Amino acid sequence: MELNDLYRRVIMDHYKSPRNRGEMQNESVAIQLNNPTCGDRISLQLQLENGVVMDARYTGEGCSISMSSASMMTEAVKGLTYEEALALAERFSSLMKGADEEFEELEDIEALSGVNKFPARIKCATLAWNALRKGIEAQK
Ligand code: ZN
Fold first, then answer.
1. What share of residues in the chain are helix, strand, coil (percent, to 5)?
2. Is the pLDDT of residue 90 over 70?
3. Are 124 and 63 in contact (CB under 8 A)?
4. Residue 53 burial by Cβ neighbours in a 10 Å radius (0-12, 13-18, 19+)
5. d(C-alpha 33, C-alpha 39), whole Å
6. What is the pTM of this model?
7. DSSP secondary structure string, 56-92?
8. How far apart are the C-alpha atoms of 60 and 41, rounded to whole Å?
9. pLDDT per residue over 58-73, tens digit each?
10. What is the whole-number distance in angstroms between the Cα of residue 56 and the centre of ligand 1?
11. Of 12, 35, 58, 104, which residue has the fewest beta carbons closer than 10 angstroms?
């Protein structure tokens, strides 16, 4: 898989030094999702309060794309309202469909934009975001 160097560095940084990885004690909701085509597994825990994503943590295992995406996603959604978090998930999904979405304010997420050229890996990148969506929908 060929991604440009800068993007690859950002992805590997999140993979090797994951943000928000680990178990949460006081989660409101926990979502487990698998991506069987690649073998990625994620367990996402969200602390949801008064319409806001207070905290997000995850555990799991899988390829660098799936795990770095989970790290980036949990970092990006903390402090967002449900609507803002769902809108961000929607933008990420458009990015994966090849839309020219810009994540200037979230450069790390933009590093995954190259993945949309590799259809087999799109499910890796969207796994954590799908878990986020399910978690919020379950709580609404
Ligand atoms: Zn994967």
1. 55, 20, 25
2. yes
3. yes
4. buried
5. 11
6. 0.94
7. EEEEEE--HHHHHHHHHHHHHHTT-BHHHHHHHHHHH
8. 5
9. 999 999 999 999 999 9
10. 21
11. 104
